[in-house]
Amino acid sequence: MDSSSLWFYVLPPVLGAVIGYFTNDIAIKMLFRPYRAIYISGRRIPFTPGLIPRNQERLAKNISNTIMGSLLTPGELQKLARRLLETERVQSAILWLLRMAVEQIKADKNQKSAKIVAGILRDLLGESLPRLLKVLARGEDFLEAQINQIFDQVLLELQLTDEQATRLADWLLQVVLPPDVLRQIIIDFLTDRTIQTIDESFREKTSGTYWVVANLFGLRNTLTRLRTFCLDEKDATNGRLKELVEVLQMRDRLKRVLVNLSLQNLPVGTVRQLRKTTRESVRHYIQTSGGDLLQGLTDSVNWDNIATLLLNRLSSSPVVSSSLEVVSQELAQILERYLEKDLENIVAQVIPILSIDQVIIDRVKSTSPADLENAIEGIVKNELQAIVTLGGVLGFIVGLFQVAFFVLSQSTLAF
Question: How far is Cα 374 from Cα 381, in angstroms, rounded to an integer?
Fold first, then answer.
């Protein structure tokens, strides 16, 4: 066999393999390239850009429909949500958030948390609590047990010591009933009508020697002169009254009275009535003026400082630190019970909000053709290379068939 005949038998399979190999390779490249349309004389050259860049928007929609229809179905999303929201994971997340919140409060230099807490306290004690107390005070049994307990354990057992009684007696004699006040009381008491009433009563009810004195001299002139003396001689009257208080030892008398003063010495009926009156007075005061009192107290209190002290104490309290885990566990269990009932509805509401299909479409559309080519080749690189190789193998086989057909044709003509 000469060399020309040898090339005649070898060349078709080789050319078929080369053509099949490079044809498939070019076809695969044309899926992505060229990345942009090419124009000559204002006309776009066919097959530019590549198939995938030219239909990238439709490809994005198809990918989105495939993923949402087969992979990320509502049922699969529910299973995914259940795995993500297991009690242990949720508890760890809540515990982390609580600890971060405590750390944030410690590191809050602008006192934002303190201002929020101060506003809450101010609204609670200055606005909400007064209205609530007014409503509650309408009940007949409002604070009945508490006031009775305070009355029985505090007021009923209350008794002044010697020192307290001494100071209270001094205060009464020096501030409440000084000589000038006593003088004015005597003047206000000794009116003409009062003097006449005392004089007539003294004349009618006395007997014996006192009757003679009462009817001969009477008390009218004496009491009138006493009133006149008190009016005209203020300093002298005050001095006489001061001496009289010292002579009568009014300070010691008041002290003994105050020391012995106790509600336990009163009759049982009187104590019960006093307790009832106290309760009614407190209820009536809260109902009428309690709101104004609390409002005034709220306005006078520096809530910012109180909130700062409160937060500092809570943030450094070991009780708060140890209770964070318990609180996170309780919150996780509450969330688990809630999700058991409404997880399907939640997922159904979340899917439109997340717009996963639109996210997929936008992501695919925003990916450049080169990146899209690299991504696809990274996934199916071996498969694409197998297609190219398969094209070469098929071309080689077709070439063999051509040689075999030619040989059979020559044999037939020879016969």
Answer: 9
Q: Where does the pLDDT of residue 205 fall: very low under 50, low under 70, confident under 90, or very high at 90 and above?
A: confident
Q: What is the mean pLDDT of residues 282-301?
A: 76
pTM (2 decimals)? 0.42
Measured CA distances, 246 to 172, 230, 252, 325 (Å): 14, 19, 10, 72
Contacts for 262 with CB less than 8 Å, ≥ 6 apart: 158, 159
Rounded CA gap, 116 and 308, in Å?
A: 10
- The distance in angstroms from the start CA to the end CA of the chain is 20
Give 343-374 as a DSSP string: HHHHHHHHHHHHTHHHHHHHHHHHS-HHHHHH
Mean pLDDT highest for which of 98-102, 273-277, 333-337? Answer: 273-277
Q: Supply 283's token pair.
A: 């209820």
Give whole-number Cα distances, 220 to 186, 190, 194, 204, 225, in Å: 15, 10, 10, 14, 9
Q: What pLDDT was estimated at residue 43?
A: 80
